[in-house]
Amino acid sequence: MSLFQLSEVKALLKQLDHYPRKVLSQNFLVDGNVLQKIMRTASIEPGDKVLEIGPGLGALTEALLNGECLVTAVEKDHNLSKHIKAHFDNNRLTLLEDDFLNLDLEKVFKSDDLSKKVKVVANIPYKITGIIIKTLIQLPHLFSCIVLMVQKEFAERMVAKCGDKNYSSFTLLTQVFSEAKIAFTVAPSCFHPQPSVDSVVIKLIPKQMNPDIDTAHLLQIIHLSFAQRRKKFTTSLKNHFLKEDLIKALEDENINLNARPQELTLDQFTALSKRLRPSSTQ
User: Fold this and answer.
1) Spatial contact of 143 and 117, defined as CB atoms under 8 Å apart
2) Is 99 marked as a binding-site residue?
3) Is 6 one of the annotated binding-site residues?
4) Exposed/middle/buried for 75, CB within 10 Å: 0-12, 13-18, 19+?
5) Does the pLDDT at position 278 exceed 70?
6) Do residues 240 and 187 lie in contact, with contact meaning Cβ atoms separated by under 8 Å?
7) What GO CC annotations are associated with the protein (predicted)?
8) Residue spans in the chain of domains classed CATH 3.40.50.150
9) Strands 178-186 vs 143-151: parallel, antiparallel or unpaired
10) DSSP string, 125-177
C-alpha cells in the first residue's frame, strides 16, 4: 500500500475509521514528488538520525526508512500511533506516542552517540509551528538541520528582510539561533484534506551561539521593542532603560533616534544590547 496516493490514503482512513482532526492540523501529504524533494532538501543519507514530529499515516516515515535512516517519530494521536506501530515492523523506527510539547529532547536523545547530530524532518502541526521551531533552533548541540513543512505566511515572517511588513520579533528570534531559507512551495492540492493555506518547506541550520553575546538580554530587548512596533525604539523601551542611556546607545551606533524596531537589523539590536546593559534598567 502506498501511503501517499490520494485514493489509498482515503481508503486507509476509512479502514482505520479515522477522520482528520482539524484541532491537530491533520492534513496528510499525498504527493510522492514532494516527499522526494523534502528528502533532498534535508540531504538524507543512509544512517542519518532523524526526528519526525507528527508522522500521521507514515508517508514521510516510510520514505525516511526506505532511505535507511534511524527514525524517532513522535505522534500524539492514539489511532495514528497504533497504525504506525502495526504498519512498520522496522528496528530502525522508534515511535513515541506523546505530545511533542511534553518531550524533553535532551532525554530522548541522551543515550545516542551525537558525534553525528540529528536531523529534524517533518510535516508539523501548523497550530504549534512557532513553539516547535523556537524549541528546535535553540538546541544546536542536538540538531544539525531542521526541514519542516509550514504555512507559507509563517515562513515569510521567518525569512523577512529588515523593513518588510512581515519583519517581526520572530524573524529576529529565527536569525539569532539559525540560518533559514524557504526551499520550495507546496500547493494545497498536495494534501488530504486540502488546507485553506499555501505551504512551504523551510530549512533551518541551527547556529552555535557566540559566548560574547548575552542572548537572553538581546531577546528581551527585541521582545520589548516589538511589543509596540509602531512606536520609536526609544519610546518602546523608555520604561525599561534610562532615556539618556537609550539616546547614547543609538548615537554611538549611528542609528536614527526616531528609528522604529522594524527598521533595525539583528546586528544593530545586538550592538545595542551590549550598550544597554541590564544594570541600566530602572
Assistant:
1) yes
2) yes
3) no
4) buried
5) no
6) no
7) cytosol
8) 6-206
9) unpaired
10) -GGGHHHHHHHHHT-TTTEEEEEEEEEHHHHHHHTPPTTSTT--HHHHHHHHH
Q: Which cell numbers in the block locate residue 185?
A: 512551495
Q: Is 179 annotated as a binding residue?
A: no
CA distances 165 to 133, 159, 169, 171, Å, are 21, 12, 12, 11
The 10s digit of each residue's pLDDT in 158-196 is 999 999 999 999 999 999 999 999 999 999 999 999 999
pLDDT band at 1 (very low <50, low <70, confident <90, very high): low
* Architecture of the domain defined by 6-206: 3-Layer(aba) Sandwich (3.40)
Residues of the chain with CATH 1.10.8.100: 215-280
pLDDT tens per residue, range 39-58:
999 999 999 999 999 999 99
Is the CB of residue 63 less than 8 Å from the CB of residue 33? no
Model confidence pLDDT, tens digit, residues 56-75: 999 999 999 999 999 999 99
> Coil, strand or helix: which one is 44?
coil
For the beta sheet containing 199-206, the strands, ordered from the edge strand earlier in sequence to the opposite edge, are 93-97, 70-75, 49-53, 118-123, 143-151, 199-206, 178-186
Residue 34 backbone dihedrals phi, psi, to 5 degrees = -65, -40
What is the homologous superfamily of the domain 215-280 according to CATH? rRNA adenine dimethylase, C-terminal domain (1.10.8.100)
Is position 102 annotated in a ligand binding site?
no
